[in-house]
Amino acid sequence: MPFPDLLLVVFYAALAALVVTAVALGALRLLRARSVAIQLGVVAAATVLATVSGILVISFLMLINDHDRSVVLTVVVSAGLVATAVSVLLGRRLVAANRVLVEAVRADRFRAPAAPLPAELAELSRELEAAYDRLAEAHRREQALEASRRELVAWVSHDLRTPLAGLRAMAEALEDGVVADGGTVRRYHGRIRVEVERLAEMVDDLFELSRIHAGALRLSRQRVGLADLVAEAVAGAEALARAKGVRISGDVRAGLPVHVDAGELGRALRNLVVNAIRHTPSDGAVEITGEVSGGEARVTVADACGGIPEADLPRVFDVAFRGEAARTPGGGAGLGLAIARGIVEAHAGEIGVANAGPGCRFEVRLPLPA
Ligand SMILES: Nc1ncnc2c1ncn2[C@@H]1O[C@H](COP(=O)(O)OP(=O)(O)OP(=O)(O)O)[C@@H](O)[C@H]1O
Ligand SMILES: [Mg+2]
């Protein structure tokens, strides 16, 4: 074919294709919310139409003869029909895969369908599964939080009210002059002071717990020697131990520095040590050890409490949980270990307990900075 004719063919073929493409794009825009099967059909039809219109224009300009035209048209139309059929088939497969996905989403618990899906839909389904798991996890956490909030409310209404009622009774008795002899008055004053101190501690513990539950515990971390932490925990509990006749000792191997909020972690350890002393009979021993190994710092508090009942072991860290012996008036509030756990977990650490030797051993594990 001479070069000018070739140019002409290219020009008219492109022109025809452009017109058909413009119409097809308009149609696709109108149909953009419809099924992919229909849109794929439009694409296949536009391809055939662009080719056929190019051939018609060229034969109209008499660049090819009638015979050639019918041969080419027959080939193009048959190929076009096959292409359209394949497109529609593909569209229907996509629609079916989509339906499988929609049904999986509608189910109570979304799981990626086992049926093979096109790559994009398979990716979407994996992402959906991950999103569903995150949602379920958030729901679980919210429910646990709600349960512990309810527990806390029940706790407040009981444990805070009982001592308040006692305080009121004593104050009224003093006010009305029901108790008049000097010894009883002094005893009442003493008990009022002790109760008020205990209530103040409880309110402080409650405040700490609510900050932990709200995720509002802001740690101001600094480098502290493990040995200093343990020494402080021992020193802080010496008076209490002496009053009860319990021996207390601290032992730190490799006192590497740890990166923690010394105030908060000190509070957690104090709760463990006070518990240990409280549950150890006089003449018993409480031992605090610290060591660094395997990329973590470990602090353990071992006592001679005689062991915690197996059934209680998993519950001692729950808010308001108290063992049988502690459920007496004036006993603990059941907040100490929940606070200790909250503080340790805020440090990305773990806390656990096991019965060992003459008593039990609480263990705090903290990751070391890399
Ligand atoms: N060292 C321990 N030895 C034996 N039992 C313990 C020990 N530490 C805790 N427990 C048990 O776990 C329960 C919960 O402890 P937790 O420190 O949370 O509360 P509490 O000591 O009763 O009250 P609070 O610490 O708020 O004053 C205790 O009542 C006790 O039954
Ligand atoms: Mg306690």
The named CATH superfamily of the largest domain: Histidine kinase-like ATPase, C-terminal domain
The 3D shape can be described as elongated
Strand tally: 7
Strand content: 5-15%
**Uncertain residue ranges:** none
SS content category: alpha+beta
Tell me the CATH topology of the largest domain: Heat Shock Protein 90
String of helices and strands: HHHHHEHEEHEEHEE
Quick one: biggest sheet? 5 strands, mixed
Features:
single chain; 370 residues; alpha+beta; Helix Hairpins; Heat Shock Protein 90; 7 strands; binds adenosine-5'-triphosphate; binds magnesium ion
Topology readout:
Layout: H1 3-30, H2 36-60, H3 66-106, H4 119-176, H5 182-213, E1 222-225, H6 226-244, E2 247-252, E3 257-260, H7 262-279, E4 285-293, E5 296-302, H8 336-346, E6 350-356, E7 359-367
Parallel strand pairs: 2-4
Antiparallel strand pairs: 1-3, 4-5, 5-7, 6-7
The structure holds adenosine-5'-triphosphate (ATP) and magnesium ion.
Adenosine-5'-triphosphate binds next to α7 and α8.
